Amino acid sequence: MGHFAMSDDLNCTCYRLRRADRRLSRLYEAALADTGVSIVQFAVFAELERLGGLGISALAKRLGTDRTTMTRTLDRMEGLGWVAVQKADDARLQRHVVTEAGRKVFRDAWRGWRRTETAIAKAMGGERLALLWELLGEAEKAARAANVAAE
């Protein structure tokens, strides 16, 4: 049966990625639990801090989600006082930035994230982790190419 031959594991890229995602997400969510920050919110914090603020569409694109989901996440974070909208004359140029309260929460969350990130790097080894990141980038590109081919 070609690549569907019997093995101890399901020969499905999507299944394997989802299973690994669930296991890793549980680790990171546990590391962040005391701060009240989800792993998605952590990624939003990280991008906003790294780039000094972004609009909803740009942030959604960078984090690989849709605008509606990003809007809900940012609305929650804004309601908690973690982010604020930086107004502009042109509504298209408005962007979200991290507030002082958000920076404190992010610093606390970063400690738990860093411990988990370090543990994963130690368990895998730096070279293997770098290879994983490279392969995940290639998988994303392959998925985009397959999506274009399917249209």
From TrEMBL:
SMART domains: HTH_MARR. It holds the Pfam family MarR. PROSITE patterns: HTH_MARR_2 (PS50995). One of its GO terms (molecular function) is DNA-binding transcription factor activity. Residues 10-141 form the HTH marR-type domain. GO terms for biological process: response to stress. This is MarR family transcriptional regulator. The lineage of its organism: Bacteria, Pseudomonadati, Pseudomonadota, Alphaproteobacteria, Hyphomicrobiales.
